[in-house]
Amino acid sequence: MGVLSACSDNMDYHEYTVYGKDYVFTDFTRTGAFVTNIYSYLDYDIPGLNSLCSACDESEMAITYSSVLDYTNGAWSALNPKSQWGYYSAIRAANYYLAECPDLDFYDQRYDKDYKEQMARFNRYQYEVRLLRAYYYFLLVRAYGDVPFTTKVLTDKEANSLSRTSASEIFKFIVDECDAVASELPITYYGLDGDAAGGTDNPETGRVNRGTALALKARALLYQASPLFNKDNSSELWKEAAEASKEVLDYCAQNNIKLGKYSDLWGADNYKASEMIFVRRVGDMNSPEYYNFPISMENAQAGNCPTQTLVDAYEMKTTGKAWNESESGYDANKPYTNRDPRLGMTVAVNGEKWPSTNPNTLETYVGGRDGLPVPYATPTGYYLKKYLDTTIDISASNSSGGKRHSWITFRLGEFYLNYAEAVCRYLGSADATDNEFTLSARGAVNTVRNRSDVKMPGFPEGMSTADFWTKYKRERMVELAFEGHRFWDVRRWKDGDAFKSITQMRITKNEDATFTYNRVVKSLTWDDKMYFYPIPDSEIRKNPNLTQNEGWSINK
Amino acid sequence: MKLTVKKNTYMKKYKLIVLAIFACVSLKSWAQDITNVAGLIVDKKGNPISGAMVSIDKNPLVNTVTGQDGKFKIMADKNEVLKIRTSNDAVKKIKVVSGEAITVVMDYSSEKVNYGFGLEQTNAESTGAVSTVYADDINNRSSFTIGNSLYGNALGLTTMQKTGSVWAQMPSMFIRGLKTLNGNNGILVVVDGLERDNNWNVLNYLTPDEVESVSVLRDAAAIALYGYKGVNGVVNIVTKRGKYQSREISFTYDHGFERQARKPDLADAYTYASALNEALTNDRKSVRYSPLELDAFKTGKYPYLYPNVDWWAETFRNHGSSDIVTLSFRGGSTKMRYYTMMNLQNNNGFIAHTDLNDGYSTQEKFSKMNFRTNLDIDLTSTTKMQANIMGVLNEVNLPGLGSDNMVGALYYLPSAAFPIKTADGLWGGNSTWDGYYNTVALTQARAYSKAHTRTLYADMALKQDFSSIVKGLGGAVRLGYDNIASYWENHTKSYKYGSQTVSAWTNGEPSDFNSFTGGTNSEMSGNSKLDWQHRSFNFQANLDYQRLLGIHRLYAMLMYSYKYDNAKGINNTFYHENVALYAHYGLKNRYFADVTLMESASNVLKTGNKWHLSPTMGLSWIISNEHFMKDVNWVDFLKLRASVGILNTDNIPYNGYWNESVTGGNSYPIKDNFNSDGGWQEGRLPSLNGTTEKAYKYNVGLDVTLFKGLTMTIDGFYERRSDIWVSTNGRNSAVLGASNSYANAGTVDSWGTEIGLDYIRKIGNVQFNLGGKFTFNRSKVIEMMEEPQAYDYLRSTGKAVGQIFGLQAVGYFTDQADIDNSPAQQFGPVKPGDIKYKDINVDGVINDNDRVAMGYNSTCPEVYYSFNLGAEWKGLGFNAVFQGVGNYTAYLNTTSIYRPLVNNATISNYYYGHRWTPATPNARFPRLTAETVDNNLKTSSVWLADRSFLKLRNCEIYYKLPSSFLSRMHVEKARIYVRGVDLLCFDNIDISDPEAMGTVYPATRSVHVGLSIGF
């Protein structure tokens, strides 16, 4: 069509802009932004509309249109799969970055005055990305067991034919990656010299660090050693898990990461709390408060209401016994006094004035302002406190706007408990120690219970392993409540019976203004197939090499 | 028939004869059998045609023109062929028979086929499927725009109205239904063969008065020359042109009395309050209104505290009016023709009180002025020029701010909300419904806004005959420049509003009150902006060659066209180029063939892949011209047509689809102060190896004229659309981890038929005409790369394009036991009175996997039909057009009407009367609720309705004043009429117009009186 060359320029006319990958990978800032995007896939589950705390026995969702109800009402299926496969986008981004980053020298910026510092930061990106990728694989293996695995940038044909790699190989990959990158990552970015991410002026503290690598390794090994994955009950796996957790404890001890107050774990400054190893920063938000504040408050939606099951896991402060144990000191008429202090910090109960912007005290009893039968009021008798910022005002007229929220990914407290679990399993009793593991399981748990604003009585010496195990599970439920553990812990323990029901508290107000407390059991749908997520049915149909997890196949 | 030469035309005739002699000197067989031929040219209804050119076919310089009475006289050799050409380019050839007066009927076969591009073919020669409707049939709805006057008039054009508001009456238009995916079913609208804008705005700015004809180009042969844009069919609107050697002045005036039909019937205050109480009770909440308050609504005892306002009645009056005035001049001399028109339109809307302000009105007023001049000038005997100019100025005046959404408020605001004004003279308003829901205040205290549209459509063509160089060679160029822009002006006031509510009752009387005030009074403030604009530039050039060699007739054309298009905003600039070779061949006047090789380009296509060849072919066989048909007198015309073509189009998935790219990604608070630099990420995977979407079109058709009055045309078509761009999302595993590319993997089949019938008969003094049109289309998605479905019945593949899927309702839950014993419905909790669905897959639960295909689509009906009838006796006549659709589905989701009470909306009496209650378990609609109950809002059989309808589009009684009477007043002709527009509608929707559904202005019905006078 040479004759038409007069007009052919117009035929290429366009107003959109296309940026090729060179645009990113020749520039420090944009290359950094590419890595930032890989971070953006990091999970957080600050209690909201669809949080997993209400898919297990920590809380019950009061908002009837929440799709988290599907987990416990039978609507969960391979056709409504609650897909976690979005993490493959993060994995592709990581693989893409790792394929592009070798040999970049940012030639055009070589005369920039901070070229050296920029290169130092750039050279570390690859280790951050590998650690993130390992973490994303951990999220997948935790949900699905065996999953398709790749470190390549896939073509669509490859993606549609990839078969599942065994969970143990993926755990090995995670552990190997953590080992490989840990030493390349700094302990902290505060004051890091000669690195554009460091310094003292607004350093990039949101990045993963050495502790993150150690913590991921330790948690991955704990999962691998747990009954769901450790089908032969291999003691060696428990040992590896114990070692990795010990490594985290030692690392924290060396680097001044230590248990602080329980109440410091949330709030606008929680990312600075002394025991944080890695925090997933979210930013300013007030949706958790909108979703979870008591129903009588303007704009509030009740949301994730802690269950009586959870409340019952808090032991008595003076005796250290469970409420229903003999001589525990429990008073059925004053069920919330003399309890583990963490209860008061985590759960809002009837008669309490909470949050501070609430003009009234809570009336969660039947007929009360915050209780049934008010539509969408708490079905359990409680409202959530943990992770919510009591200073946020959600009223239309005085709205305070959002405040900083951060999700705890790894903190020291978890690793004391992980250590305790692993070392008890490995050495066979709560008190046992050996040359390598000089801290006993009991000792580790007690360290947690002894934090400054908790000070719960320690586990007694000489407990049977079974007793230890009972109390350990309670302790873990309490200490890590609403931090995204319970849903998964019960699965890795293959303890599914725990999810067959929850307990609610039905509070009735008596004529003399006292209250009567009755526990009501509500059954939930549980099936052992739910130890793993279903692979989305459409994925099975797209890829003939994919197999479905047991029990989830769709019978047409 | 005896001809007398009138004195005043004598000179003209004389000149002609001289000219004829001059022109014929060179003829070899001059004056062998010369004769004076007299004749009469009439249209198919028998009315005389003035200004028709009659010439000797072999020597066009010998010509004459018919007078007002349709008569002509010409000197011609016996056995010579006369060519008659009317002002709308209908052409007929007829053999001179010595000494006999002839009457020529310009029937179906003589009508011009408006392909555009300077092609001149009649129905007798063409091979394409084209239907044309002429001025007489178009301009009988007293409508302001051409877009709003085509309902049921043009065979093959599925067109419907969307709203009753005059300034936004853009109709929907489809040709041959839905044929492709992604909503790319839009047709191409052209005026005089040029695309004026790609948003169909032209339909809103062209008046019916200036339109000569509208052609619907349906098959491959007909749309071949329109390139990428014409693939879904073309509507070519042809404007009026002048006539040689004549002068017509015409004046028409039309006045319309309008009213809004089927306004929403919303509940009064007491019904609303009772309904809300019932809803809250159903929701297990406490009621809002006490028995005392209900009673107060019922009695109207406290109109300020417990008001009962019919907002529709208070905001609107019952009548609107419209005026249309047209003045046109049409005529010409021997060397030029002109058509000039001025058209003024004015519509006064329905707002009740608009005169309560100083110096301005808040009426919904629409006024428009069109000016058109179409000129044809013969610069020399071989050079012709054409210039067309249309300018439009229009103005819309509306109350308040456009963003106030007054109509939305009218569909929403309960009668019980607040009084129009408080006892203190404040506008009504409160914290639930603020004062800007007060529709009366919006029309009286909110000032006004205006939209002004300025339009210039101008084009010019030059045509040159190069016969002096090569016999039969010609060429033409055409340029068009169009600009349309709309400005928006706001003149806004705000106002203070308030209301009083009762906080306590004592002894049955309100005793304590709360006052509410909001808003502030302000002076009028103003701002304005360019709302939208569109401009385009067209260039066309062609070389053509035509010869008649014995029994062979050949026409060949090399055509080039170029179009530039730009609208406000980004990525709205388009360039298109076409190069075509077109050939038309006729053998013995019986067999015709058209071949087009079209090479098109578009700037949105991939570099290096912009040009694509679209070949088409059409064949026709005029059976009635065969020798064996010679004696079959009752067959006047019989033609069999067939066409096939492969057409490309430039639908694309998104701009720059072939590029590998990186795009902005998500941010993450990486810095200690939670700041972030934003993110970058890999972009959508490039859509490589792409090609264009293609249409394989097949058509067969039959055109017949029988008994000198019955014309019938039948078409059958089949189309396969392939290589449609679809996302590969449905094919690729999420393990890929990327935004999926697009592929040319979609395929859609469509098929259907169009049948048109037209019958004209004169019995005694009565002239009858009857007509009918019927179109049917259906589509089937063959492939769309759909996400795999667990159940076959969930698949859209295999269904029609736009097929609605929904849950099958089986009734309502009667009580808790019924709920407990039924399969669990996973759309949130249900209560008695909520919709109970069928468990299609019998898996014990009801969820989105229990949806099935139901109804048709809600975009384009599969069946579209119309019929018209008329009769005339001694100038007194009537005509009527009915139009209907079938296989069309409505989704009932209008606020308040079908979605009552939620978010403080009101309720329609219809819903209230058909709601579920324990006493009416088989009601039409579910229980009342003030909550958003997802279970009941799912698309289901409850909310789908048959949207077919049959409307009396227009009917008219007219009287043509006798010429004996008129001639005394120097008036050539005059006609008066009374006309009804959209007076009747038969449908299943019951409570609203089936076309104007949703929160829109109700459709209007109108009666018009009019007068037209010709000088």
Defining key terms:
heterodimer; A: 556 residues; alpha+beta; two-stranded antiparallel sheet; 10 strands; disordered N terminus; B: 1015 residues; mainly beta; 22-stranded antiparallel beta barrel; 5-stranded mixed beta sheet; 51 strands; globular
Description:
- The complex is a heterodimer of chains A (556) and B (1015).
- Chain A is an alpha+beta fold.
- In chain A, 35% of the residues lie in helices and 9% in strands.
- Chain A contains 18 helices and ten strands.
- Chain A has helices at 5-8, 21-25, 28-39, 70-73, 87-100, 115-144, 156-159, 167-182, 210-225, 235-254, 287-292, 308-313, 341-346, 412-427, 441-449, 465-479, 486-492, 537-542, and strands at 59-61, 147-148, 164-165, 276-285, 304-306, 347-348, 383-384, 403-411, 501-509, 515-523.
- Chain A has a two-stranded antiparallel ribbon with strand order 1-5. In chain A, strands 2-3 form a two-stranded antiparallel ribbon.
- In chain A, strand 9 (501-509) and strand 10 form a beta hairpin.
- In chain A, helix 6 (115-144) runs parallel beside helix 9 (210-225).
- Chain B has 1015 residues and is mainly beta.
- Chain B is 9% helix and 46% strand.
- Chain B has a 22-stranded antiparallel barrel. Chain B has a five-stranded mixed β-sheet with strand order 10-15-16-13-14. A four-stranded antiparallel β-sheet of chain B has the order 3-2-5-6.
- In chain B, a hairpin with a 5-residue loop joins strand 28 (552-567) and strand 29.
- In chain B, helix 5 runs antiparallel to helix 6.
- Classes of the chains: A alpha+beta (556), B mainly beta (1015).
- The interface between A and B is large, with 79 and 74 residues.
